């Protein structure tokens, strides 16, 4: 009798209660191997995509190799045709035309490809006590103290006074020089260490060290700065004034790598949100002839509010969908009302070292699959979209049917903080949206960590969503 009751209780538990076991107990070795293989390409993508320009270019190159061609609004496209729209080299749209076109809505996956970093100020170059440095303006929500005393690389584009352009990448190839930001030695840091973390390093002190030798046989003002500028002129053909028309950033020089003896994790800069960008890119490449037209978005400016003509608050996505609608003789508002979107953005992975800011029952965990987030925002759900129960149910069934390992959670405890994604801007177009992405440890740091299994399951989630009817 006791054994029968135990069996019945077990059956009832499996039927009625949530089973939150680690993902490795839910997948076989073959899927683990596929995840490991998938992440080799992912690490290469990260290394080649340390700025939004580079990420857009990398994604465009992979798309072109898969048959995507520039979109022409004057052409008529057939099911299975693949097109792309390059928006100023900083954001990108891919689309595969569905067998039923867009009359019954489109399926959208939207990730962002910008990341926290250090931008140069318009007049960045200065000399101080024989050290040559560049002044920066930090971009996005970062912890300033994490960016001192680490190796940095210089990336970006400089547009010269005559209109010609030069792309810059120094610090990524073997033998390249690296750069850094100095910090105060602990022996003299008594006052600094008494400050809060947010104030210990001031933004105006995030100056990048780039030189310390003068022009030979010269003494006087700015001879150290002049020597560094001479080297920049020889290598890139620029003058100091050309920094005014430049998009130059400094990013961590770390290469993506495996973390742990079991190599289950990936450590790298920029995984928020290029982990989701790569997953949706591979899904877009894989799906050949969907029922509904698929649109893949790689957006800029998310880390600073999605403003600007390359961010999700601009009209570039809606305008593209309107072009598709016009070509089929339907109204764009009717297309949008029937459309669905996965806002492909990362979520916070539970960190046992800082457990006090997480709700353990409502967190996402490394190695437990793709993270679903019904809403983001802060405090009382400000700055979020909050997916409806019906759409959440649709996503549950879709993932379960296709054996996609998934979990659902929030960013952290209600009053601990919060954050947003592009979901609310797409929802504002009258589209059903939910956040789906990779759980991340040390988010927004120079060296973030994700699970290979979670990255692969995010790709699987994106693929089945695009394939769904």
Explain how this protein is built.
It is a single chain. With 469 residues, this protein is an alpha/beta fold. The chain folds into 2 domains: 296 residues, Zn peptidases (Aminopeptidase), CATH 3.40.630.10; 136 residues, Aminopeptidase i, Domain 2 (Roll), CATH 2.30.250.10. It contains 12 helices and 22 strands. The strands form 5 sheets. A 9-stranded mixed β-sheet has the order 1-2-3-13-4-14-20-16-18, with helices on both faces. Strand 5 and strand 6 form a beta hairpin. Helix 7 packs across helix 12. The chain is globular. It starts with a helix and ends with a helix. 43% of the residues are buried. The model has no long low-confidence stretch (mean pLDDT 95).
Percentage of β-strand residues:
15-25%
Walk across the major sheet and give the strand order.
1-2-3-13-4-14-20-16-18
> In CATH terms, what is the architecture of the largest domain?
3-Layer(aba) Sandwich
Overall shape: it is: globular
Q: Helix- and strand-based class?
A: alpha/beta
Ends distance: 48 Å
Number of strands: 22
The name of the CATH superfamily of the largest domain reads: Zn peptidases
The unreliable regions are none
Helix content: 25-40%
How many DSSP helices? 12
CATH class of the largest domain: Alpha Beta
The biggest sheet, with number of strands, parallel, antiparallel or mixed sense and barrel status, is:
9 strands, mixed
* Count of folded domains: 2
Pfam families: Peptidase_M18
Family: Belongs to the peptidase M18 family.
EC number: 3.4.11.-
Cofactor: Zn(2+)
């Amino acid at each position: 009798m006791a054994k029968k009751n135990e069996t019945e209780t077990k059956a009832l538990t499996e039927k009625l209660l949530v089973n939150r076991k680690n993902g490795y107990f839910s997948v076989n070795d073959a899927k683990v191997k596929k995840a490991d293989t998938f992440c080799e390409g992912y690490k290469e993508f990260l290394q080649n995509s340390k700025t939004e320009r580079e990420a857009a270019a990398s994604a465009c190159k992979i798309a072109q190799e898969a048959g995507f061609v520039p979109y022409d609004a004057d052409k008529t496209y057939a099911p299975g045709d693949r097109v792309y729209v390059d928006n100023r080299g900083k954001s990108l749209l891919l689309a595969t035309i569905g067998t039923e076109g867009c009359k019954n809505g489109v399926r959208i996956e939207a990730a962002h490809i910008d990341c926290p970093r250090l931008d140069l100020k318009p007049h960045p170059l200065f000399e101080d006590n024989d050290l040559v440095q560049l002044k920066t303006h930090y971009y996005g929500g970062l912890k300033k103290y994490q960016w001192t005393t680490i190796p940095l690389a210089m990336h970006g584009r400089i547009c010269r006074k005559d209109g010609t352009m030069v792309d810059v990448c120094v610090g990524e190839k073997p033998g390249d020089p690296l750069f850094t930001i100095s910090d105060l030695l602990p022996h003299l840091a008594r006052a600094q260490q008494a400050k809060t973390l947010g104030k210990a390093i001031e933004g105006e002190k995030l100056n990048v060290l780039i030189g310390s030798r003068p022009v030979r046989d010269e003494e006087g003002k700015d001879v150290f700065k002049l020597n560094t500028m001479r080297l920049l002129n020889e290598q890139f053909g620029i003058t100091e004034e050309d920094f005014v028309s430049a998009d130059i950033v400094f990013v961590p020089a770390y290469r993506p790598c495996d973390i742990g003896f079991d190599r289950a994790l990936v450590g790298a800069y920029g995984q928020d949100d290029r982990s989701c960008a790569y997953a949706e890119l591979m899904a877009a490449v894989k799906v050949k002839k969907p029922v509904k037209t698929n649109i893949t978005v790689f957006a800029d400016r998310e880390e600073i509010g999605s403003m600007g003509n390359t961010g999700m608050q601009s009209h570039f996505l809606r305008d593209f969908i309107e072009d598709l609608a016009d070509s089929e003789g339907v109204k764009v508002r009717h297309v949008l009302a029937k459309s669905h979107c996965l806002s492909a953005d990362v979520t916070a992975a539970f960190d046992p070292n800082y457990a006090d800011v997480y709700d353990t029952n409502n967190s996402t965990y490394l190695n437990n699959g793709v993270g679903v987030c019904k809403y983001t925002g802060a405090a009382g759900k400000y700055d979020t979209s909050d997916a409806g129960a019906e759409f959440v149910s649709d996503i549950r069934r879709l993932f379960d049917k296709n054996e996609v390992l998934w979990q659902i959670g929030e960013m952290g405890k209600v009053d601990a903080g919060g954050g947003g994604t592009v979901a609310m801007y797409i929802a504002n177009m009258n589209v059903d949206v939910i956040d789906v992405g990779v759980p991340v440890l040390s988010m927004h740091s120079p060296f973030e960590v994700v699970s290979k299994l979670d990255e692969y399951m995010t790709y699987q989630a994106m693929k089945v969503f695009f394939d769904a009817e």
